[in-house]
Amino acid sequence: MSAEMHVPEDLVLVGHISGAFGIQGWVKIRPYSADADAMFNARQWWLNKPELHEIGCLEVKPHGEDVVARLRGVADRNAAEALKGSTVSISRQSFPPLEDGEFYWVDLMGLSVQNLQGEVLGVVRDLMDNGAHPILRVAAAEVPEAELHKHERLIPFVDQFVKQVDLQGKSIQVDWGLDF
To answer: What is the reported pTM?
Structure first.
């Protein structure tokens, strides 16, 4: 990485390159979210292979559950295959604006979760999508990742249970008992 290259502090991991697509240098990306809007908006991506570097995104299209893209300087299938396994990050500033009441998952990670009684349930450790709606995976911050499934609370991210999200206050208030 050159000394004069500026790496944004707000990079968000959005997917990884799973291989080449076609023979003209396109890459296939597996997005980490069902909503890949950030990839369609951003014209500058950051790849971590062979080392962290910025690359221009010339064209991007949906392709089933994946995304395919043509990247600056990647002219053939061999160059595209060489990028397989690279992670794709995008500056948070490149994400499209959201409507009121909508949130990017990355913004919910680490928020403290309390119930209506003021009892702390933990922090948002991860999210998952069950097809109908996202689900918060909430556990104490000190629970090791390998033990998360034993200690987590799975709280549907729907209005019935999620009463308030305060990004500035880094908290989420839920209608969820300690014994659920």
So the answer is: 0.72
